[in-house]
Amino acid sequence: MKHSSAIAIALLLAGSAALWHAPTASGQADAGWVALFDGKSLDNWTRIGDANWTVADGVVAADKASGISYLVSKTTYTDFQIRSEFWVDDEANSGIFIRCIDPKAVNGKTAYEVNIYDKHPDPAYGTGGIPNVAKAAVGLKAGGKWNTYEITAKGPKFTVTLNGTKTVDGAEDAKFPSGHIALQYGQGIVKFRKVDIKPL
């Protein structure tokens, strides 16, 4: 009986230890990720241009501006992963700019743009592509639904995944090694409800 009781107690303790460690293990899945947009404010961003960005119900959105406008991160990043959820209408022109070397002059000559532009004149550089760097390997449309971008920039290499499909795989360019993150408003309706970054 004593031997059986000892085994039972040992198993019980082992089970308790496993349960105690379970939350830690699941928590590690998000270790290192930082929310650039917290769903409540634009405290981590600087507005460039006059887009009518508003924050409500965990979403930052714009549908009007007199010209191209941006939300620019206050922090710079070198190597990182980004996870972002966005919604656009069919007419939207938007994008996530990375490694912006001049936070007051964001464009394709001072940063890399991971495009959100279903009606781009050159579909290869539309949604999922990086203009002037990498054509989208797969022609995907983002209009009318929530989408998830996963963007990795490590050294001169870039990988982009849209809704689980890789659109850019290991493209290389070394012009901009570090810089700010920027969310673009060009036209249409543009919404972001998550922008998380993980420095590498």
Low-confidence stretches: 4-29
| N-to-C SSE string, H for helix and E for strand | HEEEEEEEEEEEEE
Describe the largest sheet: 8 strands, antiparallel
Rough shape? globular
DSSP strand count: 13
Average pLDDT, all residues: 89
Radius of gyration: 21 Å
Helix content: 10-25%
Structure in words:
With 200 residues, the chain is mainly β. It is 13% helix and 44% strand.
List the defining traits of the structure above.
five-stranded antiparallel sheet; 1 helix; 200 residues
Produce a short descriptive summary.
The protein has 200 residues and is mainly β. It contains one helix and 13 strands. 32% of the residues are buried.
Explain the layout of strands and helices.
Blueprint: H1 2-27, E1 34-37, E2 45-48, E3 54-56, E4 59-62, E5 69-77, E6 80-88, E7 93-100, E8 112-116, E9 146-154, E10 157-162, E11 165-172, E12 179-187, E13 190-199
Antiparallel strand pairs: 1-13, 2-5, 3-4, 4-13, 5-12, 6-9, 6-13, 7-8, 7-12, 9-10, 10-11
